[in-house]
Amino acid sequence: MIPLAVPNLNGNEADYLQECITSTFVSTVGPFVGKFEDAIAALSGTQTAAVLCSGTTAIHLALEGLGIGEGDLVMVPALTFIASANAIRHARADVWLVDVSRDDWIFDAAAARAAIEAQTDPHPEGRLHRESGKILRALMPVMIMGAVPDFPELVALARDFNLKIVVDAAAAIGTMAGTDTPLGQTGVDAVCYSFNGNKTITSGGGGAVAAADNALIARIKHLSSTGRVGPNYDHDVVAYNFRMTNIQAAVGFAQLERLDSFLQSKQRIRDAYAALADGYDVLSPFPEPQNGRNGHWFSGFWYTGTADGIEIAFQNHMKEAGVDLRPFWKPLHLQKPYADALCEPMPVTDDVWRRVFPLPCSTHLTEAELETVKTAAQAFWNRHKEAS
Ligand SMILES: *Cc1c(COP(=O)(O)O)cnc(C)c1O
After folding, report:
1. For ligand 1, what atom is nearest to the CA of residue 87?
2. What is the tens place of the pLDDT at every residue in 218-244?
3. b/e per residue 13-25 (b: at least 16 CB within 10 A)
4. What is the whole-number distance in angstroms between the Cα of residue 130 and the centre of ligand 1?
5. Quick one: CA torsion of 2, 269, 260, 166, rounded to 10 degrees?
6. Does ligand 1 come within 6 angstroms of the Cβ of 171?
7. Which of 110, 117, 173, 288 is the most buried (most CB within 10 A)?
8. 48 lines ligand 1 (CB under 6 A)
9. Is the pLDDT of residue 148 over 80?
């Protein structure tokens, strides 16, 4: 079976891991933690970054570090992986679900603006949501598939309503805004990455926050390491053990050395699937918003036709051809934990999510494997074309 996305570990990963073992620095202290942190900051255009044990904890601590918590709301698109919302709840805030726009699948800023205007009043810390009595504090755009949002539009929206922006860039390492502006210099408050095994670069598991505000990064580090003050067992806040280990950082650092070649592979795969989709009226590549350089974490196509049940038929066909194909993320408003969340109308999310087909996109996917995927997909869609 050709997998969807598996790690490419053929660089210095094994050597750096051996260094961890030989030096005995296997835990949260060790040279790779600082090196990885510095590299993430440099890539993000910030002075500092905090590396953590997952992308989920990165989002959680970015929110908590900004003082967002109990009684607060964070606006997040429904078309995302459930971890975006879980992190908001872990910070003890609540989610306010909004749709994505059709041309970027990231965040419908116009719908968000209309909802905020209609349902909230000014408040010193953000916007008071009249019906729930909660305070909207932040927007959380999700850089789905590694795509770039319209940052100037989001920053203007946040400024108009006195809100923070915490970016779920879990899948967007290497993505650049505008003409090569690093994500940390886009005017947002925090950029959160994941280094889970299926992401463009992995540290086995892990995450990071980059921010222009060094004091925010310092607070996040404090929260991630039990809130300890001084060399003894003195702690000033109920905090967490969310640090990254030297072992994870060693893998992540080795991966980051090859980021450019990984991004080239992702682009090659994107181009191949876009060319494939071009051959069929009913298929479109994933949106490629022209707001910068998209990282193309995942590529594939989506079905724009009207036939019922075709998703399942295509999934089964690809599995039989030896290609891993799974349904895309089920949106948050359809998930049990968020069924009762504050929720705006979802015309785009509801229309799109079942029709999205992410295809195999590991950075070391071979030309032969790519050919297998293309041939199998073409066999299905040619048959569909003839039948209709
Ligand atoms: C992977 C991912 C996360 C969560 O990251 P973990 O490291 O798995 O905790 C959050 N949001 C999005 C959009 C993701 O793709």
Report:
1. 10
2. 999 999 999 999 999 999 999 999 999
3. beebbebbeeeeb
4. 31
5. -90
6. yes
7. 173
8. no
9. yes
Q: What is the mean pLDDT of the chain?
A: 97
For residue 247, list its beta bridge partners: none
What are the two backbone dihedrals, phi and then psi, of residue 139, each rounded to the nearest 5 degrees?
-105, 140
pLDDT at residue number 385: 86
Token pair of 173, please? Answer: 């390492």
**Ligand 1 center from residue 81 Cα (angstroms):** 7
**pLDDT over threshold 90, residue 372:** yes
Structure-block tokens of residue 26: 């296997």
For helices 109-119 and 151-160, give the axis angle rounded to 10 degrees.
10
For residue 105, what are its two tokens? Answer: 């699948």
Nearest by Cα to 148 from 112, 182, 168, 176: 176
Cβ 55 under 6 angstroms from ligand 1 = yes
DSSP-assigned beta bridge partners for residue 283: 303
Ligand 1 lined by 298 (C-beta under 6 Å): no
CA of 207, closest atom in ligand 1 = 7
SS3 labels along 303-347: ECCCCCCHHHHHHHHHHHCCECCCCCCCCHHHCHHHCCCEECCCH
Decide whether any atom of ligand 1 lies within 6 Å of the 111 Cβ.
no
Residue 125 has pLDDT above 90, yes or no: yes
Mutate to test the pocket of ligand 1, among 81, 195, 209, 326 (most ligand atoms within 8 A of CB): 81
